[in-house]
Structures are given as C-alpha cells and as structure tokens.
Amino acid sequence: MPHRTLAPVFAGLRLGLHVLFGGLLALVVVRVLLTDGSPVALALSGVLGLVYLCGIAVARRRSRVLAVAWVAVLTLLWASLVWLVPEAAYLVFPLFFLYLHVLPRVAGPLAVVATTAVTIVAFAVHGGLTVGGVVGPIVGAGVALLIGLGYSALERRAAEREALMAELIATRDRLAAAEREQGVLAERSRLAREIHDTVAQGLSSIQMLLHAAERADADGPGLDYVRLARRTAADGLAETRRFIRELAPPSLDSGLGSALTRLAAERATSEGMDVDVVIDDDVVLPMDAQTALLRIAQGALANVAQHARADRVGIRLTRNERTVRLRIADDGVGFDPADLEGSASPTDSFGLRALRERVDQLDGRLDVVSAPGRGTVVSVTLPVGPS
C-alpha cells in the first residue's frame, strides 16, 4: 500500500494553479466585455479556456509528448491574446509553473525567460515602456522559478520518502516472516528433543532388555514372544529415528560446507552415486542462508535419487561480494522443466515448486536447466550482502 503523506499538498497546489488560471482568464473576459467587446478576443479567451481544461485530462494520461504539445498550444493562444488584451499578460504567471512542471529541466526555465520577454514587449506596446512593465514580469518570473524549484525538490523528497517507506515495510514483512520461520524451527527442534528423550529412549531400553532376555533364556518357552517384542521395538525405534531426522535438520555447527559434505556422503552410500563436492574456502553465511541452502540441496539430491537415474552428481558452493550460489548438476535422464513444473503436485515436498518457494522467501533466484537425456543443473543464487 503506497504511503503518500504529501499527496494532499501536491493536490492543493495543482488546484490552486487551476483556480489562478481560471480567475485571471475571467478577468480578461470581463476586461474585453467592458471595453470594445472584441469577438476575436472573446473567441481566443474561450479557446484558451477549453484547451486548458483539455490539458487537465491530458495530464492524467502521463504522456510527456501530449503534455508538451498542450503547453505549446497554450503558449501560442496566450501570445495571440496578449497582443489584443494587455491584461492577458497576467496569465503568464500560471504558465510559468506549467513550464517548470511539464517541460524538461532546461526547457522549463528557458520558456519562463522567453515568455517574460514577450510579456515586457506586450506591456511596452500597449502602454509604453515603464519600470513597472519591466520589473513586474521579471519579479513574477523570479518568484515562479523559486517556487517551481522548491516544488520539484519537495516532489523528489516525497518520492524518496515513499521509496524508503516501501523498503521499510518490505523489511518489516521479511522480519515478521523470519520470526515466524524461526518459531516453526524452534518448535520442530523442541518436538525432536522431546521424542528423542521419551519415545526413542524408551524403545531403546526395551530393545536392550529384550536382548538380555534372549541371552539369559535361550531355550525358554517365551522366546518367540520375546523375539517378536524385540523386533517390534526395533522397528518402532527405526521409525522414530527416521521421524527425528526429518524434524531436526543436520547440525550446522561446523558450517554449511561440512553439512553438504556429510549429506553427499550419505547419498553416495545409500544411492550408489558418485557425488563430488566443491566449496570455496571463504564461504561464510548467516544461519538462515545456510539452512535454506542445505534444505535446497536435500531436495535437489532427493530429486536426483528418485527421478534422475544419475551416476554422477556435482555440488558446488561459491560466494562473491553480494551473493552466494549453489549449483547441483547430474548426468541423469533429464526432463522438460516447463512440463514438470506445470504438472507438479503441491504436496510434492521435494518438487521444483517447493524449491522455488523456499528461494523466493529469501529474494533469491532459482534456475533449472535440463533436457531429456542431457542431465539437469539446478542453480540457486541468494543475496547475502557483503562478507
């Protein structure tokens, strides 16, 4: 939601400019009616007013070309009117602000100077060259320039303030999301510790006691039941440990490089793949980036194990001044990323959609390059700031 605290000020200034132009134009019409009632002057005044009203609609379309054309037509009409009615010279004051607001930076002040000169000449033609006829337009032009420059500076400051507010709001949202994620991670760790200290330890004790019972009464009548209980406890213990591994990520105490190396070794052992890991020596990352990259690597390697039928996988982690890049490439069967992502199930926790969502949470970029029979390369780039 945009925060334009100065928007009412700008709207008031524009309204004041419109009212000033309308009032001065009405003054010109009254002057014509009270003197000779020239139909040409009245017609020019009416056309000038209509063109000005049309320009308000043009300004809403935010077209620089149309706005410049509008100001040029206004200037020609005003220059024609000022030779017929001397009071029309006062209309140059609101025109000054239009020049400074609509025309480019250099063209605006030049237009102010040029129309000031036209105004002085018009006063001289109608009433002779006087001090007031010279000083008045010059002072008006100077005041308009100062106000116009101040308006431009105020508008720039307002734009900077708006951009800063948007950045602060985005930072606040990211901090809130990070706090929620930290709360989820803390709860998962708590559950993992609770299960480990209760269920897992109990099952482990049952298994040890049943082992002892087997050894103590190898030929007893309840041996089959004891063995069944031991196998049941062993299965429950294995399932509980699997659950704990899913809840609690591998420890990052020794850094992301060690965790990736350990993950690669586990995959190489369980899947029979050749996994190479290359990590820059100077890769030092905040914990949120380490966790995200580790999870992304887990998901990508799970994809390789489930779908790629690859013999070789390469993992490379690099960092420059502003970003960190994780690249995972395999020599598997490959796929068409567009087709797979279009048909991916939302429940596929290791799918491309899940990887992309995790990367988007950290304002990163996910690139997937693959083709049938040509393997797959998954590249993740995250902004981490200067090291």
Walk me through the structure.
The chain is α+β, with helices and mostly antiparallel strands and 387 residues long. The protein has helices spanning 7-34, 39-60, 64-82, 92-102, 107-127, 131-216, 223-247, 256-271, 287-308, 337-343, 352-361, and strands spanning 274-279, 312-319, 323-330, 365-370, 376-383. α3 runs antiparallel to α4. The longest helix has 86 residues, at 131-216. The two termini are 33 Å apart. 22% of the residues are buried.
Strand numbers in spatial order across the main sheet: 1-2-3-5-4
Q: List low-pLDDT spans.
A: 344-350
As a percent range, the share of strand residues is 5-15%
Number of helices: 11
Largest sheet: 5 strands, mixed
Which shape, going by the Cα principal axes?
rod-shaped
Calculate the mean pLDDT score and round it: 78
Helix content: 55-70%
Q: Using only CA atoms, what is the Rg?
A: 39 Å
Could you spell the SSE succession in H and E letters?
HHHHHHHHEHEEHHEE
Question: What gap, in angstroms, lies between the N and C termini?
Answer: 33 Å
What is the strand tally? 5
Task: Kindly name the structural category.
Answer: alpha+beta
Essential attributes:
alpha+beta; five-stranded mixed β-sheet; 11 helices; 69% helix
Question: In short, what is this structure?
Answer:
The chain is of the alpha+beta class and 387 residues long. The protein has helices at residues 7-34, 39-60, 64-82, 92-102, 107-127, 131-216, 223-247, 256-271, 287-308, 337-343, 352-361, and strands spanning 274-279, 312-319, 323-330, 365-370, 376-383. Strands 1-2-3-5-4 form a five-stranded mixed sheet, covered by helices on one side.
